[in-house]
Design a protein that fits this description.
By secondary structure, this protein is of the alpha+beta class. It has a single domain, classed as Glutaredoxin, CATH 3.40.30.10. The protein has six helices and eleven strands. The strands form three sheets. It has a seven-stranded mixed β-sheet, covered by helices on one side. Strands 1-9 form a two-stranded antiparallel ribbon. A hairpin with a 2-residue loop joins strand 2 and strand 3.
């Protein structure tokens, strides 16, 4: 099973069933959205293997734009709301098979480490109803149905495949990212998260 789902012609066709005009918006916005936030960002200094996928750790934290989305209650939310905590931001969709496979591991990770210092945000590129239904189906007990039905996260964060997961520090800066599905509840991933939790903020 492929571990990533490229947002391309196939992705457009599938997502057209979910949100009309989604990729038209992405194409119009292109790299103009929040480009300055990525200017001068350092190259990755080290990769950590998680289940055959590589989590790229940046040599220094990268500034991120303040991504907007909807919380599980349908209210406006943003990454800034989670300042003060280490955040694992997972971009996924119900139409993406690797995303669906990965979600239970993210739920278990959040159940084990989630709290005042760390949280998993599973941000669905779907309507709230579809995201909620899937999370209920897999009995995800700790993940809220955060949604970005317009797909702004793809262009804002320069993401080309789903799932893609970003690790964000307590100041809202990107520490690294992984493209593809990973076993987030296994020892290498737990040790990675815990290593950042031990660092001073």
């Amino acid at each position: 099973m492929p571990r990533t789902f490229r947002v391309s012609v196939i992705g457009v066709a599938l997502l057209a069933l979910v949100a009309l005009g989604f990729f038209t918006h992405i194409a119009m916005e292109g790299d103009s959205l929040q480009g300055d936030a990525f200017a001068g960002a350092p190259v990755a200094s080290k990769a950590v293997e998680l289940g055959g996928q590589k989590f790229e750790r940046w040599g220094a934290p990268r500034p991120l734009p303040d991504l907007k989305f909807s919380d599980p209650a349908g209210r406006p939310a943003s990454l800034a709301d989670f300042r003060g905590r280490l955040v694992l931001l997972n971009l996924w969709a119900t139409w993406c098979p690797p995303c669906r496979e990965e979600m239970p591991a993210l739920d278990r990770l959040n159940a084990r480490l989630g709290g005042d210092k760390f949280v998993v945000i599973a941000l669905a590129l779907d309507s709230p109803g579809k995201a909620e239904a899937f999370l209920r189906q897999i009995k995800a007990g700790t993940l809220g149905a955060y949604t970005d039905s317009q797909g702004l996260a793809l262009s804002t964060l320069r993401v080309t495949t789903v799932p893609t997961t970003l690790l964000i520090d307590a100041r809202g800066r990107e520490l690294g990212r992984l493209s593809g599905a990973a076993p987030w509840d296994e020892k290498p991933a737990l040790e990675l998260i815990q290593s950042y939790l031990k660092e001073p903020t």
